[in-house]
Amino acid sequence: MTLLKKLQWSFGLLLFFFVLPVIAGQLPFNKQASTPIKEPEDKPVVFAATNSPEQSFLEETKEETKEEIKEETKKETKDPFKVLLVFTHSEEAYQPMVQAVSGKAAVYDDKTNIFSLKDTISKHFSMNGIQTDVLDVDVMKELKRQKKLFPAAYNVVRPYLAKRLQEQSYDLVIDLHRDSARKNATTITHNNESYARIAIVIGAEHKNYRWNTAYAESLSATMNEIVPKISRGVISKSGDTVDGRYNQDLTKEMVLIEIGGIDNTEEELNRTIAVIGKAIAKSFVTEKQ
Question: What is the spatial distance between Cα 179 and Cα 259, in angstroms, rounded to a whole number?
Fold first, then answer.
């Protein structure tokens, strides 16, 4: 063998051993000798405390619902409109009502009188969302007990009324009376039904009378919107021949209402009482809320 051939053979042998590992790594049976890849372990993933859009929407909805519930609760717990009824001339009566009970035609009676209408009035007012209290004093009986004459009635009821107003507050105080006028002046027909007309009297000899007048005019106007001309208007009184205060100086929210006259029937009075309740609600209760 020549020297050149020996060198070629040696170089080829070295080249064979050099490329052998590369070729072996490509063969299929050597794949199992490769290092296996470790599968990732199942571990709980902890996310940052950031709400998804859906979670945020649910949270906002919950908050809105809570606010709505709070608002509804406020409405439910809001103080009702409170009215105090006073009957200074408690034995003023209506002839048809007295005659139906006792058979006599009387305009004053110790049982069937305007004071006996207190439950009917309270019922109608309650239907209009008005809480009604009654100054439960039969003033005419108290007047007789104290041996005083009829004109002293306002002075007799005054301490009872003043005490009640110190103990509780009212949105409106109504002193209810019966007018002495006859049927043609105290009755009106509307939609084929008859009503007892009302008049509101304000004493003009005290510092509150402008406030009392404002309440009276608002109530009168609203009543006439419900039944045209059912109110005869607001009458201011002052001078030597009248009381001039009617205890309205005790509170600016007080009015005196004369409901019907001596000839009005119980049905006519009931219809008018219903109108008064509606008018109070429309004039004052809605404004308060």
Answer: 7
Please name the residues in contact with 109: beta carbons below 8 A apart, sequence gap of 6 or more: 91, 93, 98, 102
DSSP letter, residue 238:
-
Q: Which two tokens stand for residue 78?
A: 């809001």
Among 13, 95, 145, 25, residue whose Cα is nearest residue 268: 95
Alpha-carbon span 94 to 261, nearest angstrom? 7
pLDDT at position 285, please? 84
Residue 84: CB atoms within 10 A of its CB come to: 23
18 by Cβ neighbours in 10 Å (0-12 / 13-18 / 19+) ranks as exposed
Task: Name the token pair of 157.
Answer: 């009821």
Residue pair 258/181 in contact by the 8 Å Cβ criterion: no
Does residue 134 contact residue 175 with C-beta atoms inside 8 Å? Answer: no
Q: Which two tokens stand for residue 226?
A: 């419900």
Strand arrangement, sheet containing 198-203: 130-134, 81-86, 172-177, 254-259, 198-203, 231-237
Q: 196 near 268, Cβ under 8 Å?
A: yes
Q: Which two tokens stand for residue 62?
A: 């919950």
Dist. CA 48–CA 228, nearest whole Å: 71
pLDDT in tens, 207-219: 989 999 999 999 9
CA distances from 258 to 60, 165, 220 (A): 56, 22, 12
Q: What are the residues whose beta carbons fall under 8 Å from the beta carbon of 127, sequence distance 6 or more?
A: 274, 277
- Predicted local confidence at residue 67, as pLDDT: 64
Q: 247: which 2 tokens?
A: 């205890």
Q: Chain centroid to CA 17: how far?
A: 103
Q: What is the pTM of this model?
A: 0.73
Report all structural domains of the chain as residue ranges with CATH numbers, in order of start. 79-288 (3.40.630.40)
